[in-house]
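Milestone 3.1: sequence recovery, worked example.
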């Protein structure tokens, strides 16, 4: 295939950045991924991906896309403790207080910890001959040409404090919800990208519990979406053969407490008792971890925002298909981008 250019840079080596780099590896002679974090040698959570401590699963389409990018990837995740599951047959979905009837399907999803999903993508990407991933390297700003109309590369700082300008034909921003792209574009004289924002005050509290195969009637996961009048939601997912991960939460500050009894009481307030039955009786294997953000947002930006850099959406709504405000896709999904016009 004829290359579109010599060099593409991707900012951020989380799911969005890694998958963007894989796609670009077919169209650019060299792809460089710049990541601010030190990348862990084993599959453990890291600072730049705080959501990595919370429940994650991959729906069928996402798994298929990644498997097509990296044949054998699903088997590798399973070898790390994950499990394939029939999204419709092995998962209990509850929305609007109604349990959707389980039925076998050919929709094969994947359950594993977030670090295991990401680590297996990263290792496969780094094995590609024309891709390099530079860790401990924080992008400071985009570099534009003299007319400030074309992005020519980035200025990045490595852990020693030394800064480098790295030239590129294309820069993809996959730096997540804290992306500086809007500010960088504004500094070039473009209009600040519009942001559609809905205050939701969402918060999740997560803990890992001992799993026994007979738990939950043999289901691999239960997903309870919040819907009026009870907006509390919860997810319990197979993480490894002997571990459940439970994330429960709510909106507008109605968050699950990080206290044994109050966490169980909160789980008991969900529309079904599936999560409560585990939380109240199974052995806890971790501390509580909390995650909060004030608003769901969708940005229209001027560079190419990838993954969640284009905004932030509530994952439980996304996974369940129940969404009071926004549409989107979760890990590996693409967010629409358009150039702001007339703002210079
Ligand atoms: C509680 C919770 C549960 C979720 N559950 C699911 C789920 O079950 N399934 C699912 O598909 N999705 C789920 N999601 C969504 C999923 O986690 C995100 O969509 C996905 O991680 C976004 O990936 P990303 O690469 O776009 O951004 P991020 O994961 O935010 O990664 C951004 C990366 O950029 C790096 N970075 C930031 N700034 C710079 C810089 N200046 N220079 C260099 N590097 C930088 C960061 O260190 C990080 O590595 C969940 C999210 C949350 C919050």
């Amino acid at each position: 295939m004829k290359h579109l250019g010599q060099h593409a840079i991707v900012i951020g080596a989380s799911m969005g950045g890694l998958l963007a780099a894989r796609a670009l590896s077919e169209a650019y002679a060299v792809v460089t991924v710049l990541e601010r974090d030190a990348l862990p040698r084993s599959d453990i959570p890291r600072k730049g991906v705080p959501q990595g401590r919370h429940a994650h699963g991959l729906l069928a389409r996402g798994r298929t896309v990644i498997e097509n990018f990296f044949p054998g990837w699903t088997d590798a995740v399973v070898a790390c403790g994950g499990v394939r599951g029939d999204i419709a047959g092995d998962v209990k979905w509850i929305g609007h207080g109604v349990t959707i009837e389980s039925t076998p399907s050919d929709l094969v999803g994947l359950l594993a910890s977030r670090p295991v999903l990401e680590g297996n993508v990263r290792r496969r990407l780094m094995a590609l001959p024309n891709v390099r991933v530079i860790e401990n390297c924080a992008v400071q700003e985009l570099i534009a040409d003299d007319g400030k109309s074309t992005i020519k590369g980035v200025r990045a700082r490595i852990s020693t404090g030394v800064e480098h300008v790295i030239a590129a034909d294309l820069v993809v921003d996959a730096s997540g919800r804290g992306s500086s792209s809007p500010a960088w574009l504004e500094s070039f004289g473009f209009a600040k990208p519009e942001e559609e924002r809905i205050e939701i005050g969402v918060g999740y509290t997560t803990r890992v519990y001992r799993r026994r195969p007979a738990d939950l009637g043999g289901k691999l996961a239960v997903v309870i979406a919040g819907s009026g009048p009870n907006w509390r939601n919860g997810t319990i997912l197979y993480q490894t053969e002997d571990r459940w991960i439970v994330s429960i939460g709510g909106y507008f500050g109605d968050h699950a407490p990080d206290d044994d009894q109050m966490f169980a009481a909160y789980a008991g307030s969900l529309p079904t008792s599936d999560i409560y039955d585990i939380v109240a009786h199974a052995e806890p294997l971790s501390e509580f971890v909390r995650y909060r953000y004030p608003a769901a947002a969708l940005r229209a930006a001027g560079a190419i925002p990838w993954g969640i850099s284009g905004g932030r959406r509530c994952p439980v709504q996304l996974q369940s298909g129940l969404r009071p405000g926004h549409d989107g896709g979760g890990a590996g999904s693409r967010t629409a981008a358009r150039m702001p016009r007339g703002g210079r």
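Confidence is low (pLDDT under 50) at residues 319-344. The helical segments are 15-24, 60-69, 73-79, 114-126, 181-187, 260-268, 274-281, 315-320.
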